[in-house]
Amino acid sequence: MVVALKGVGSEALVTRSGSWPTLRRLMERGAATLEGTTGSVSSDPAGPLTTLGTGGLPSEHGITGTLVRNEERELAAAWGPRSPINVIATLAEDLDEDLGQDPLIGLVGSAPVDRGLIGGDWYVEHDKDEVTMLPEGSSPARLVESASEMLRRIPLGEDDVPDLLAVALEGRPDGVDASLSRLLEAVSQQVGPDALVVVAGTGGYVDAGTGIVDAGHLLRRLERRVPERPQVVEAVSPGELFLDQEVLAAQQLSADVVLEELLDLGDDRLVFADAFPSLAVTFGRFC
After folding, report:
1. In sequence order, what are the beta bridge partners of 98?
2. 279 partner at 20 to 30 Å CA-CA among 6, 105, 106, 262?
3. 127-155 confidence digits (pLDDT tens)
């Protein structure tokens, strides 16, 4: 079983050291560290979740955020209908392929990006995984209830073929930890003591009240500052602004113009430590 703690990072665990007794017991009984890194922007769980599923970084598996561009250069929601698939296979996909589709693969989550934990169609189109997707924002308790129901409904761990259940929980460390305890109890009852459990955080979100900037307000200010006020921003996701390339071409603007205005939005305080076009990241990988 793989349990992803969305929005939970080492800093939150260190500062609330007494609020996660279940996770602490797991750490004492097995291999554990608070020094790991997700290798991507922690405010957007899409990349880290697929990293947990594939074992590769976003630069390798291709799911770089909640929004990605497909081969037609169209924006698509990661793991949505028009999204490009992961470049490398997940553990769940490899298990299915190597063992003749005999493993049982299950997922319980509350957002399309949670699919990154198991993938799906790398080897077989419309892979028959057991997927329960609850409404976004569902509580950890409700997600664990669904996972427990799945454990009762399908025979996970009842033969010698390895199965995999992935659960994505989101919330504060104390609430997530209490639900994790109930999930471990359900696994113990249905599967027994020999189940391997892996728990990993996607990295901490920024807490409200610590100087965060509303994205909508930021975009309105940016649009006002760019010459002739074209609607240059096509979409926004955590850590990224997607520029409308057709608008830039029609207005004869370069991305550098937008970057300059973006970095100057802070007035009397710094909003961005840095900003750069995605092309710079691409070149950085090879130069």
Report:
1. none
2. 6
3. 789 999 999 999 999 999 999 999 999 99
Q: Which two tokens stand for residue 178?
A: 């209490």
Q: Are 181 and 222 found together in one domain?
A: no
SS3 156: coil
Single-letter amino acid code for the residue at 200: A
* Residue 28 sits in the same domain as residue 133: yes
User: Which range marks the domain in which residue 265 is found?
Assistant: 215-286
On whether both 221 and 125 belong to a single domain, the answer is no
Question: Is there a contact between 167 and 109 (Cβ–Cβ < 8 Å)?
Answer: yes
Q: Per the domain annotation, does 34 fall within a domain?
A: yes
Helix (H, G, I), strand (E, B) or coil at 108: strand
Q: What is the residue whose two structure tokens read 């610590």?
A: 210
CA distance 287 to 80: 32
Instruction: Report if pTM > 0.90.
Output: no
In the chain the beta strands, taken as DSSP E runs, fall at 2-6, 67-69, 75-77, 105-109, 130-133, 164-170, 198-201, 233-237, 240-243
What gap in Å lies between CA 134 and CA 130, rounded to an integer? 13
Cα gap 68→215, rounded to integer Å: 18
**CA–CA distance, 164 with 160 (Å, rounded to integer):** 13
Q: How far apart are CA 75 and CA 223, in angstroms?
A: 20
Beta-strand relationship, 75-77 and 67-69: antiparallel
Between the alpha carbon of residue 201 and those of residues 9, 128, 158, the distances in Å are: 6, 27, 28
Q: Where are the beta strands (DSSP E) in 145-260?
A: 164-170, 198-201, 233-237, 240-243
